[in-house]
Amino acid sequence: MTKKLTVVLSQGRGKPSSRQALERDLARALDDWPNIDVATLPHLYDLAPDGPGMQHLRSLSGDLIVLSWLYPRAAFWVLDANGVKGRMGRTSFFPEEELETAPEEVVQLRSASPHRTIWCLDLREHDQLEPMLEEIERLAAESAGEPVVVLAQHGAPAAERPRFAESTRYRWYPVIDYSRCGNCLECLNFCLFGVFGRDESEQIFVEQPDACRDGCPACSRVCPSHAIMFPQHNNPAIAGDPEASADAFHLDVVQLLGMASAAELAVAERDRALAEKAKAEKSATKKPARNDDLDQLVDELDGMDL
Fold first, then answer.
1. 40 by DSSP, 3-state: which?
2. 208: number of CA atoms within 13 Å, CB side?
3. Quick one: how far is CA 263 from the chain centroid?
């Protein structure tokens, strides 16, 4: 039996009205496609690894079309980091040169489903519904090997669509693109927060994602392969933009204001994060200020012969 295609609709952060409208219209349109499944999730990057959303995605075995407010590279490797494995599929919105394949030994170690295709579409690419639906229809036909069945009119959903309204928080952690990673361990040696580790095969991986300090992308800057992404960073190259040049990793406001090199900028970002961590730890362990009048009264009572 052919494994059914699933379209994953990952909602945006913050819920601006334009994003909500596009998500709503996509969900309504896809309800007319009875030969696909649709799963609506909170923002992909913010999902907890063991939450119901990621658990559902890991339970699926067929091809996936993932619609998110992330660059396709970032979305694909976020899924990989959370155990949702497959090979990256080409879309009309994704440059051919970005279909880089991880080394075979890495595929064997890290991909539980190398024969499953995952197509990732960036919802920011279009503010109109039709181009996105046309591409989804094309990919669904490619997955099934036959045209997609679309109902003539809107009606009741073709099936009960899973919707995961799990509670999430804004997360910040690095994501490794293993098609680029040379396993040089520069990130492991540079990071002082214990984020990275090595698995049983000595391959680098993000061992403690939530140990990363909010806003610190320093490991991405020192990576010689540009394999480390922070999907919510405001620098497109660090966030996973496939069209950003290598130089774009270093051209941001902080560097333009005086940093001489990417290494300097990375060290400055790491040192700032270290200082903030130390400040937070000191604040958490600091004893509350004592009330001098109360202390004096206690001392007087202690000295009385009662």
1. strand
2. 11
3. 25
Give the pLDDT of residue 306. 46
Task: Output 131-140 pairs: Cβ under 8 A, ≥24 positions apart.
Answer: 132/26, 132/67, 133/26, 133/29, 135/91, 135/92, 135/93, 136/7, 136/30, 136/65, 136/67, 138/92, 139/65, 139/89, 139/91, 140/5, 140/7, 140/33, 140/35, 140/36, 140/65
pLDDT confidence of residue 270? 80
State the DSSP H helix or E strand holding residue 6, giving kind and residue range, or none if neither.
Answer: strand 6-10
Helices and strands (H and E) in the chain: how many: 11, 9
Q: Quick one: CA dihedral 240, 49, 126, 158, positive or negative?
A: positive
Domain positions in the chain are 6-144, 175-285
Report in angstroms the alpha-carbon separations of 195 from 46, 57, 207, 213: 17, 24, 6, 9
- What is the CATH class of 6-144? alpha beta
Structure tokens at 8: 């994953």
**Residue 44: Cβ within 10 Å count:** 25
At 1 the pLDDT is: 44
Mean pLDDT by 10 residues, the chain (306 residues): 81 84 90 86 94 93 94 95 92 63 50 75 86 90 76 50 78 94 94 94 95 92 93 92 68 53 75 79 65 54 52
